[in-house]
Amino acid sequence: MTGRLLRLDVENFRTLRKVSVPLGPLTVLVGPNGVGKSNVLKVFDFLTDIIQTDLEPALEARGGFDEVAFWGGGKRPPTTMSIGLQALWTTHASPSAPDEYELTIRRRAVPGRPDGAYTLSRSEKFQFKRTRGRGRRIAISGEQATVVETHATEDAEESQFGIQRLSSGLSTLPRLARTEGGAEVSRVAERLSSFRVFDVDVRAARRPSRVATMGQHLEPDAGNLADFLLDLREQDVQNWQRLLEDVKTVLPHLEDIEFGSAGSAIDEVTVYLRERGLRRGTPLADASFGTVRLLGLLALLYDPNPPALTCVEEIDHGLHPQALELLVDRLREASTRSQFLVATHSPALVDRLRPEEFVVCERDRLGASVIPAISTEQIRAIVEESEDLPLGELWFSGALGGDL
């Protein structure tokens, strides 16, 4: 895996009043329903949309600023919302001098308008370490972008250019010349645009899927699961065999996974499960909820061309506890190729985690998410005091946090 995210900072996004989430190769957000785990994942979905469509369309797709901004703490939405990232993506970035990106969106009411009309403005900041000196900073405000190059002598060179008022630097600055920061911004935009928030839609995954081009990605809802698995079998035999053995470990009655045309549609493929003792294969449409979920998740983990960050909603949903140990092992292996941010409320899955992989999520009385609710150092100390009780047991008992 080339580089990774180090931290996400968010203010006033849905239930995220003010959070700072440390991100490792594998980060698991743990907490009951409604504490804001999904909203952390939605931040990355929002950033990806900004790159693909720009800022205003990304907001409009979510109902506008008032629907995206912090939901708690009063009758009116806040006037600002911000998202910040620290990462190791560009050539000279390091933990002590990471790549930095910050987006701030401001809401201003239109004077004299009783209908609640408002205008928006945005500011953005990029910072990258260079070979020598403090590095390169790009600041965007209004219709102007400023590039500042600071050298080892502390001398600084500054250049400016115009930019559309609400256009995002993530979607427009990659067109800059390499000498003005285009290469670094392109790298950040490339990484962010590849992010995927994955949530298996079992109904969609069960359906036959149209045969597409080779080397495709698994869709975020696993709607092309059959074709993706067929492509994996044809193009990556080693990973296909490993996936098949994993499925057999959880489903010992399974003998093979086969493929066939979907009725008369020769351009569509469906999955058949060859099971011991049955005279015919079981179509995926007739497989259990948990089996389809397992296949979708393993397909994601064996993707030969993964994104920079893979987010997974409620990863334990519908899975038998015996599948969770295997799943955690495969997540750790896959996290060498794609960083993983996963949400769960399963103590059985948490039992299999390490303290540095575990982020406790809670909500306060004003509706704001508290993430993390307890530090990694505190978790390690509590585990030591408990004489190494499993994390899931400690969390479920309240020893690692509870309702505020």
From TrEMBL:
<dbReference type="GO" id="GO:0016887">
    <property type="term" value="F:ATP hydrolysis activity"/>
</dbReference>
<dbReference type="InterPro" id="IPR027417">
    <property type="entry name" value="P-loop_NTPase"/>
</dbReference>
<protein>
    <submittedName>
        <fullName>Putative ATPase</fullName>
    </submittedName>
</protein>
<dbReference type="GO" id="GO:0005524">
    <property type="term" value="F:ATP binding"/>
</dbReference>
<dbReference type="InterPro" id="IPR003959">
    <property type="entry name" value="ATPase_AAA_core"/>
</dbReference>
<dbReference type="InterPro" id="IPR014555">
    <property type="entry name" value="RecF-like"/>
</dbReference>
<dbReference type="Pfam" id="PF13304">
    <property type="entry name" value="AAA_21"/>
</dbReference>
<feature type="domain" description="ATPase AAA-type core">
    <location>
        <begin position="26"/>
        <end position="351"/>
    </location>
</feature>
